[in-house]
Design brief:
Layout lengths: L1 E4 L4 H10 L5 E4 L17 E4 L7 H9 L4 E4 L9 H6 L3 E3 L6 H16 L2 H9 L17 E5 L3 H12 L3 E5 L5 H5 L3 E2 L2 H7 L2 E4 L13 H5 L5 E5 L8 H10 L2 E6 L22 H7 L4 E3 L8 H20 L12
Parallel strand pairs: 1-2, 1-3, 3-4, 4-5, 6-7, 6-9, 7-8, 9-10, 10-11, 11-12
The structure holds nicotinamide-adenine-dinucleotide.
Protein name: D-lactate dehydrogenase
Keywords: NAD, Oxidoreductase
Pfam family, one: 2-Hacid_dh
């Protein structure tokens, strides 16, 4: 089976290469998958893609015309795939559902701790021998209320960590997860979560229902000074409304690992280009109480190892005729 691996970085070569079984040949391509690059997959059996690759209907048409029968995602989220159209053109889609919920949950906690205790500011100050504490005031996490939206794999690990800090957890999901409830999370409606949470952390997928989940109306119902954390998908936040809420102090701190328009920015070194033409992103970076990381929540040795293993299992299952281990279908 010949697989074209799009958006391949050095770490993809390392981890996928190490997990590759006999009979699966990988061609690593640095290009992102787009309508323009889909032709590169002609003659391959499958493509392996990541979150910024475009697997929309026109791209699927081009892939199918070139002989592609399988798309394997090196990610859990699949909002970049037109699943209905994949079914129409006979392309199977597979993903890595739970490679390491710890990696992303721990990154969300890292954002909370760094923001709350102003670690970036403290780091820079101490390097200049400035030991003044003004501006570094934080709060105890113990006793604070954390709102968790989406209590699947990642939200549950996040809940476990936050209860370990002694936080009260309010959870909101379209279905109750008994594991989360057993950890002590109290399932509440969205209004109650918005009104009571000192910290809101988003762990639901990006869907039509969750697009701009936190918009100006929702943000107006939060506690003044709330900390908002998004390690899930950029589209969950209405970034314009978030900027307005930061200006008014409605949001007291923002930690994001994902951004609505990240596909034009993330995963590349753009420091040399100097063409910073995303004004909303540039505005976000002007706030001292905003911490942005470039979609690195998944980026641990453990997660990359697991992603590579499950990706190979998906490919092997398809090659063997039994189907990928983790197919993605329209119903889930
Ligand atoms: P999961 O499927 O295990 O859990 C998602 C939860 O969200 C489910 O419990 C589901 O019921 C809930 N949900 C769905 N729609 C909802 C709605 N409208 N309101 C409230 N809850 C809703 O997924 P997971 O493995 O926990 O991953 C969550 C998300 O994290 C992924 O969809 C992906 O976007 C993101 N993610 C980010 C990174 C990163 O590197 N930053 C890495 C992996 C995953």
């Amino acid at each position: 089976m010949r697989v074209a691996v799009f958006s391949a970085k050095d770490y993809d070569r390392r981890f996928l290469g190490a997990a590759r079984p006999a009979g699966i040949d990988l061609d690593f391509l640095e290009h992102r998958l787009t309508a323009r690059t889909a032709g590169l997959a002609r003659g391959f059996d499958a493509v392996c893609v990541f979150v910024e690759d475009d697997v929309s209907a026109p791209v699927l048409d081009a892939l199918a015309a070139g002989g592609i029968r399988l798309v394997v995602l090196r990610s859990a989220g699949y909002d970049n795939v037109d699943l209905a159209h994949a079914g129409v053109v006979g392309v199977t889609v597979a993903r890595v559902p739970a490679y390491s919920p710890h990696a992303v949950a721990e990154h969300a906690v890292a954002l909370i701790l760094a923001l709350n205790r102003h670690l970036c500011r403290a780091y820079n100050r101490v390097r200049e021998y400035n030991f003044a504490l003004t501006g570094l005031l934080g709060f105890d996490l113990h006793g604070r209320t954390v709102g968790v939206v989406g209590t699947g794999e990642i939200g549950t690990v996040f809940t476990r960590i936050m209860t370990g800090f002694g936080c009260r957890v309010l959870a909101h999901d379209i279905r109750v997860n008994p594991v989360c409830a057993e950890l002590g999370a109290e399932y509440v409606d969205l209004d109650r979560l918005l009104a009571d949470a000192d910290i809101i952390s988003l762990h639901c997928p990006l869907t039509q229902d969750t697009h701009h989940f936190l918009d100006s109306a929702a943000l107006a119902r939060t506690k003044p000074g709330v900390m908002v954390i998004n390690t899930s998908r950029g589209g969950l936040l209405d970034t314009g409304a978030v900027v307005a809420a930061l200006k008014k102090g409605r949001i007291g701190a923002l930690g994001i690992d994902v951004y609505e328009e990240e596909s034009a920015l993330f995963f590349e070194d753009r420091s040399e280009h100097g063409a910073f033409d995303d004004d909303v992103f540039a505005r976000l970076l002007t706030f001292p109480n905003v911490l942005v990381t470039g979609h690195q929540g998944f980026f641990t040795v453990d997660a990359l190892t697991r992603i590579a293993e499950v990706t190979m299992a998906n490919l092997s299952g398809f090659a063997a005729g039994t189907g990928p281990v983790h197919p993605v279908t329209l119903v889930g």
